[in-house]
Amino acid sequence: MFTNLKAQPKDKIMALMQQYREDPREGKIDLGVGVYKNAQGVTPVMRAVKAAEKVLWEIEGTKSYTGLAGDPAYGNALTKLVLGDVIPAERLSMAAQPGGTGAIHQAVELIKIASPDATIWLSAPTWPNHPSIIKHLGMKMAEYRYFDNESRAVDFDGMMEDLKGIKAGDAVLLHGCCHNPTGANLTLPQWQEVADLIVEKGATPLIDIAYQGFGDGLEEDAAGVRLIAQAVPEAMIAASCSKNFGIYRERTGLLVGISENAEQAGITQQNLTHLNRQNFSFPPDHGARLVTMILEDEGLKADWMAELEDVRTGMLALREKLAGELRARSGSDRFGFIADHRGMFSRLGATPEQVEALRVDHGIYMVGDSRMNIAGLNEETVPLLAEAIVKVGV
Ligand code: PLP
Ligand code: TYF
Question: Which pTM value belongs to this model?
Fold first, then answer.
């Protein structure tokens, strides 16, 4: 049987991580995988997570199964973080998932059940796992233009033109904030235009929000999601706690369904629960429990928000510094986009040869499409990166 298996494409980001680890050079700089790192290059356990884990160790009396859709308290707490109070509870359905990735996978499965001929529309570019999961599940996909390689900003005209091709029953995958891999994001008026078009076409948005709190703030980063959620009769939201709670390996995500009415929401809930049962029965609980404890406790929540805000403003300061260093070294404003982008990533717009030169000649690792993880920098390495970028001729 196994002799029938064929080789599978590698996860390029993971392959790059491996290459970085094997590089013996001392001054090497890792701007690859999308994991937050502090100035010392450490991905810390957040204070509130540590505190919650300590309490949990003391009070947790059982590790018996939760529900098939996870603990409802977790779903409610995380949904409130993402959506605020903009959608009445009776229209919501939710199921805990192993990470944001699990939530996306389950959303595509839900689309497959509800609308098997649907095309799922993806931004060009997008996170490589999006097309990979959709292809794996045998669904059709199409791309909409998103990034203008010249200005390194959103190509909104191109996006709207391409989205005119949406058909009723299709799904449109949107990044809720902090677009991966570009760092370029929609403005609120642009979100409104996208929402209007989706409603007009009778499509369903699938919003992937994996970096809430990493861009302009917890509330600000959710503004586009809330706007679109209020504008459409139905939507899916795949939320991840990996980054903003720093609990990557705990696999903590949530799929939220928004339905037109309470009756429809009940059926959607049954389907979400059914899908969990088919795929893994019960979702992981440890990360979800920590998130619930933090969001439900005023003190823990305040401390988590304060630490997250430090993470966010630290990355913004690095963006400003890098844009400044590049302005000084290149004698031009053409790198100003780095300060305009939000989240962990910016797409530099370098050629594959330049990305290669950065790695080979300067020990600087970024993804092949020239996506760099801003959190991989610190005060000392920003000038080194700026120098190298100018040297390789970006
Ligand atoms: N969506 C995007 C765009 C991401 O970058 C990530 C990154 O990690 C995820 C979803 C989901 O992450 P996880 O499955 O670790 O929660
Ligand atoms: O884009 C990134 O780097 C993060 C982390 O298969 C990641 O989203 C990378 C690859 C992968 C899963 C997560």
Answer: 0.97
